[in-house]
Amino acid sequence: MTGKIRFATEKDAEAILKIYAPYIEKTAITFEYEVPSLSEFSERISEIQRKYPWIVYEENGKILGYAYGGPEYTRAAYQWTVETSVYLDEDARGKGIGTALYEKILDILKKQNFCICYVLINDDNEASIKMHEKYGFIKNGFRKNCGYKFGKWHSIVIMEKQLNAPSVPPKPIIPIGELEYEF
User: pTM value?
Assistant: First the structure.
């Protein structure tokens, strides 16, 4: 890998959406039916980045993948939990880019003082389940037939990883804009 990982900017929205669109159109990895407009997607990125990290892997000026953290739930008591997602360009799979993005996003989230990281994975996506197990995620739940896409019902595996030990009182979450982080 000769690229670099960095925080996403507003200018990256179109390239990131081009990576995400095939997952919507061709897979049940995401339960979205319609590709969002560029403006809607740009707003999603901006909204996430108010508190959470959104990073990209760029090589020779082209974004080949991205990862981000987001709220698992919105109630105040859940603020120390986070959900993560990673997506790669179709031609970038199997090159270690997903691994690099995942290691970086988990490191950032840990430094922000999040305690537990969750992922929701379509139970048909065995490669993603195995990758998360490699990073110490454990299965802790299952939602049977919770999403309907492409003419069939899909189930979700819930996995979690402890990033930081919970403390009393909890350490405050450091919003991504206030975290001093060097790639």
Answer: 0.95
